[in-house]
Amino acid sequence: MKIYSNKDITERELFDFLDNMKNEFPISLDCKTNLKNTANKLYNKGAIFLVKDENNKIIGLIGGYINDLISRRGYISVVVLKKEIRGKGIASSLVSKFLNEAKNHNMKEVWLYTYKNNNSAIKMYEKLGFKYVKEQNNDFIYIKRF
Questions:
Q1: CB count in 10 Å sphere of residue 108
Q2: pTM across the whole model
Q3: Closest of 71, 11, 70, 69 to residue 41, by C-alpha
């Protein structure tokens, strides 16, 4: 499956996908963040990698930041796939693509938060080399150092 970047979508497409997928998270995404602001910030300042279906519609994405040249710390803010493509290694491919780009941008580490009961995501992150840091509220914080 081809992986696209934020250059291959519009900000509106990003917002619409996040809005349509907001309830796929253990806690609805719009309860944790303002989706319009998140889409704007990710689109204009973030790194986004995504997959599309045969109709050129987004069916999965990862978004985060790899532009902190002072701390050289990256951050994954969202990973979401439509249900029908889960369990096929696509999320792992997207996270790996993000990590490779983080390395290419001289990041020394990448952080993420995941809901503490999101067992499939936790298993994937640990398989990709992320290490548990601590629990904060209902989230686990993970880090991958290069």
A1: 12
A2: 0.94
A3: 11
